[in-house]
Design a protein that fits this description.
This protein has helices spanning 15-20, 26-32, 40-43, 56-59, 72-75, 95-98, 134-137, 141-152, 172-183, 197-200, 207-215, 234-245, 264-276, 300-313, and strands spanning 99-101, 104-108, 111-115, 159-163, 190-195, 219-225, 249-255, 280-285, 321-324, 333-334. The chain is α/β, with parallel strands linked by helices. The radius of gyration is 20 Å and the shape is globular. The chain binds pyridoxal-5'-phosphate and iron/sulfur cluster (SF4). Iron/sulfur cluster is lined by residues 120, 122-124, 127, 129, 166, 196, 225.
Length: 337
């Protein structure tokens, strides 16, 4: 008898429907992966403050019956998150002081980050945004106007970064309106979109999105967030291909995570798989010391060892910059290992 796939993905569903049908419960996630009887069931937790949220196309990439699955490990809420560990704080990046007005984070010269959407399509357990006051940064029309005025009034800004939350949770019409308003500011030359949505819901790369990004006068780049080569689905590759054909620069940032990608071979395979999909590895982040994420942290010696291996085995252009964020610094800090 043929095995029936547990999770069927319907290519014809639009991304909003797929998002609405995302799994929001740890037990259901374990059930879909045939792990309800595993030790993980008793360890579930951490979701009161930061709910579980995982779209089904991402679950379809996980290995059934594998407690250690590297994709599962990123999204399953566990009681460990509730431990208070010294040195792990709620605002490790010192973003609150740089939050110059609602929805605007201006920390680095020439670039401004706009919080274009409050939520994400997936709740990554290690994320520093688990504590970010999105409710105070949810921008309505008036605040958008003020954010754009801030950019317009500061001619040192040549690049606008749409971040979040996840800007690709805005629909194509909203994004297109925003993009036009940004393009109307003469000194802005580049638009950058930081998003994990295409990784967890590749259907988000719609024809409308591609054509909108192709048409703006701004030079567009998309920075994805992929941590493990198993996250790169054939559907994602197809979507990225259509963006690349329109001249959109594709970059990736990853986070080093214990139990997910703390393996030199996995990291090298990730760089290779990204490049095969037309994406350049940009940043490899050391985990921010955010409360609730301590169990993902790696010792400095281990980080150094992993990165040295990458240096010795990858061409320079496939070696992401190893960085961390230090509050108050005018740039990301490149770690010398
Ligand atoms: C990371 C980041 C940027 C972008 O930095 P790049 O080095 O240009 O990639 C901009 N603003 C903020 C607040 C950031 O955290
Ligand atoms: S901001 Fe990025 S890393 Fe954080 S939860 Fe959203 S998608 Fe995940």
């Amino acid at each position: 008898m043929r095995a029936v796939p547990l999770i069927q993905i319907d290519d014809n569903k639009n991304w909003q429907t797929i998002l609405a049908e995302a799994v929001r419960d740890g037990h259901e996630l374990l059930r879909l992966l045939q792990l309800e009887g595993s030790g993980l069931a008793a360890a579930l937790g951490g979701d009161k403050q930061f709910p579980v949220l995982v779209p089904r196309p991402f679950i379809a990439l996980m290995n059934k019956g594998d407690e250690q699955d590297p994709l599962l490990r990123q999204v399953l809420g566990l009681q460990e998150e509730e431990l208070q560990v010294p040195g792990y704080v709620t605002d490790p990046l010192g973003e609150l002081p740089a939050n110059v007005r609602p929805g605007v984070v201006h920390k680095y010269h020439g670039r401004v980050l706009l919080i274009a959407a409050g939520g994400c399509a997936v709740n990554c357990r290690y994320c520093f945004r688990r504590h970010f006051p999105y409710a105070d940064n949810r921008i309505g029309r008036k605040q958008w106007q003020e954010a754009l005025e801030y950019v317009a009034g500061n001619d040192s800004i040549s690049e606008v970064i749409l971040s979040g939350g996840d800007p690709l949770l805005l629909d194509d019409a909203a994004l297109s309106g925003l993009c036009k308003q940004i393009a109307d500011i003469a000194h802005v030359r580049r638009l950058r979109i930081h998003s994990r949505v295409p990784v967890v819901i590749p259907q988000r790369i719609t024809a409308e999105l591609v054509s909108m990004l192709a048409q703006t006068r701004l030079q567009v780049s998309l920075v994805l967030h992929v941590n493990h080569p198993a996250e790169i689905s054939s559907q994602l590759v197809r979507g990225l291909d259509s963006l690349r054909r329109e001249g959109i620069t594709l970059l990736n940032q990853s986070v080093l995570l214990q139990g997910v990608n703390d393996d030199p071979h996995v990291l090298c395979r990730l760089s290779e798989a990204l490049f095969a999909a037309g994406v350049l590895p940009y940043y490899l982040h050391r985990l921010d010391h955010v409360q609730g994420a301590h169990h993902y942290a790696l010792a400095h010696e281990r980080i150094a060892e992993l990165y040295r291996y990458m240096k010795e085995h990858l061409p320079g252009y496939l070696l992401p910059r190893l960085v961390c964020e230090e509050a108050g610094q005018p740039h990301k800090t490149v770690l010398m290992v």
